[in-house]
């Protein structure tokens, strides 16, 4: 049998969120920077993303990362993040899964007790410290790209809901964050379907009504995730909260969401709820945890910003070899609205 595509993929989940990692079958893609490579995939090479994420090979509740040679000398590896609807400049859960796959399969050397590497994400360089023991990457801490607030207390008119107040911030993707309690949600797993439907409505309205353009890269624009926030609490002396991020086309991030956590930290910092040097425990809807921290304050295109770190754990679940039989009539798969909302 001759295959027209053979892709090696490591299955990895971080705190419940499946973000697979392509480790073989694609040599490189055109582009001078990782952002260019992301753009090339989006415009010329999107069949790879569809092949892996769409059915019958993929499903709506996953992402996939393409590991590539870095384009700058200080990076150890590059990666392009592919989600169900978007290519994104940065993602926390995808970073943690990619680091775990790179170290646990020996693509990059593991040093115990701490491995330090630099990854080149499309949005910029990401410094990583992985805690490693007996060949296992026990946790990954990365320093995210600068996070900042676009707007606080912004009224958004949402059909069927009236006025909903949102805070808008960037943590690697652009978030509309809203108080779950005000719309009657406790962020209980039983609310998942409703959180998605209502969260998508809020996102669509906020994206139209609140313009948001990254001050240094105008190609990064428009709110594309909703973050349902539970109130900030002090538990055992630690600032703690729950959240649920609605990822397009309509599903909940199973992890506590790294870029969402950083967007929330930027909002908390702007509101005086957290200082540089403080930690924040962020819980997912399935009760898994990322530890966030505000490391320092900075400026981005004249805006105040914060540099944050995220710590999380990941586990390899599978090694897949996906192939394309040249006679397969569905090389880029399909989406059906029973499990792919808004398709
Ligand atoms: O951790 C994050 O940043 C994300 N998890 C899935 C969707 C977002 O990219």
TrEMBL record:
Name the Gene3D superfamilies for this protein.
Diaminopimelate Epimerase, Chain A, domain 1 (3.10.310.10)
A GO MF annotation of the entry reads: 4-hydroxyproline epimerase activity
The superkingdom of the source organism is Bacteria
Which residues are named in the active-site annotation? 91, 257
Family assignment from sequence similarity: Belongs to the proline racemase family.
Which PANTHER family does the record match to this protein? BIFUNCTIONAL TRANS-3-HYDROXY-L-PROLINE DEHYDRATASE_2-EPIMERASE (PTHR33442:SF5), TRANS-3-HYDROXY-L-PROLINE DEHYDRATASE (PTHR33442)
Protein known as: Proline racemase
Lineage, broadest ranks: Bacteria, Pseudomonadati, Pseudomonadota, Alphaproteobacteria, Rhodospirillales
């Amino acid at each position: 049998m001759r295959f027209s595509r053979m892709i090696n993929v490591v299955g990895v989940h971080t705190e419940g969120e499946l973000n697979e990692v392509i480790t073989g079958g694609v040599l490189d893609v055109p582009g001078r920077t990782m952002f260019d490579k992301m753009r090339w995939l989006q415009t010329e090479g999107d069949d790879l993303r569809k092949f892996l994420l769409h059915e019958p090979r993929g499903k709506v509740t996953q992402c996939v990362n393409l590991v590539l040679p870095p384009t700058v000398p200080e990076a150890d590896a590059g990666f392009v993040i592919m989600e169900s609807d978007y290519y994104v400049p940065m993602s926390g859960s995808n970073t943690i899964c990619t680091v775990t796959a790179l170290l646990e399969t020996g693509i990059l050397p593991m040093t115990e007790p701490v491995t330090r590497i630099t990854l080149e994400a499309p949005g910029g360089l990401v410094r990583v410290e992985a805690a490693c023991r007996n060949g296992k990457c026990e946790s990954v801490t990365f320093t995210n790209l600068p996070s900042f607030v676009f707007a606080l207390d912004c009224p958004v008119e949402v059909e069927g809901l009236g006025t909903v107040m949102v805070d808008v911030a960037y943590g690697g993707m652009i978030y509309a964050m809203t108080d779950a309690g005000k719309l009657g949600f406790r962020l209980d797993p039983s609310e998942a379907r409703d959180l998605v439907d209502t969260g998508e409505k809020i996102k669509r309205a906020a994206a139209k009504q609140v313009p948001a353009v990254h001050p240094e890269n105008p190609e990064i624009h428009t709110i594309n995730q909703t973050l349902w926030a539970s109130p900030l609490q002090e538990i055992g002396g630690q600032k703690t909260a729950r959240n649920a991020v609605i990822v397009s086309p309509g599903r909940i991030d199973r992890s506590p969401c790294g870029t969402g956590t950083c967007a929330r930290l930027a909002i908390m910092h702007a509101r005086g709820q957290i200082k540089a040097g403080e930690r924040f425990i962020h819980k997912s809807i399935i009760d898994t945890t990322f530890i966030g921290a505000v490391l320092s304050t900075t400026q981005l295109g004249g805006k105040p910003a914060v540099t944050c770190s995220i710590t999380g754990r990941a586990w390899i679940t599978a090694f897949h070899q996906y192939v394309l039989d040249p006679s397969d009539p569905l090389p880029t798969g399909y989406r059906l609205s029973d499990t792919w909302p808004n398709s």
